[in-house]
């Protein structure tokens, strides 16, 4: 039988390919300052970053950390003859759920625009937190990003057109928030996308025509589009798609014949009333 109470515990990691192994190498103070700004904006006021050890320390916290929780920062210290470190290019802030009462580890803040100051970033994930507010337009300046997941938070407002500048992006997951409006036309530039998910929001308008130009897509998940009835989107050129979910999008008319010729395709339409599995 499961315990009566639930608690959320936090996994906050800047994960990487190489960990700090050189005792004399240090993280530049400007990166330490930026990371401290980021944690403050997130609402993690009890985190303190040590540039000498490249570690996150908790201060002013009397509660024992949850079992299996983890706080770490990854650094590459092969710069300037192994004397200088830099934060490695992946930021992950994640909640997981266990069974017990524990409060005070939730993040009440917003997505930090200061992330743009970390020039080595390739991946950002804030999966399953309680972050709120709008998505900062400054994220559009991190053109090195290949992965961006803001899934299962409380973000609201419209999507900033500046996100269309992330032309190297391969994965964009915005599911399960309170986002509204239409997809910016600038998203037509995101032609390296392989995984795009915007389900469980409050978007309006039509399914954008530019999706047909995302020829590398293997996964597309869209739901809950508040607009008028529309035709099935043109996906003829996305021959490698494997997973297609279109629920509550007010799609009418016939499903195009070419859909049934797509190898390895799994498809969900509307309220799961139509399901097609084209697995090999």
What are the defining features of this structure?
280 residues; mainly beta; 11-stranded mixed beta sheet; receptor; transferase
First-residue to last-residue Cα separation:
41 Å
Main beta sheet: 11 strands, mixed
Structural class: mainly beta
The overall strand count is: 19
What is the chains' assembly state? single chain
Which range does the strand content fall in?
A: 25-35%
- CA radius of gyration is 21 Å
Spatial strand order of the main sheet? 4-1-7-8-10-12-14-16-17-18-19
Count the DSSP helices: 1
Report mean pLDDT, rounded to a whole number: 72
Query: Helix proportion of residues, in percent?
Result: under 10%
Tell me, briefly, the overall form. Answer: globular
Low-confidence stretches: 1-25, 59-63, 65-72, 92-106, 271-280
- Element pattern in H and E: EHEEEEEEEEEEEEEEEEEE
Give the helices and strands, then pairings.
Blueprint: E1 7-14, H1 29-42, E2 47-50, E3 55-58, E4 70-73, E5 75-79, E6 84-87, E7 90-98, E8 123-125, E9 132-133, E10 147-149, E11 154-157, E12 171-173, E13 178-181, E14 195-197, E15 202-203, E16 219-223, E17 243-247, E18 265-269, E19 274-278
Quick structural summary:
By secondary structure, the chain is mostly beta strands. The protein is built from 1 helix and 19 strands.
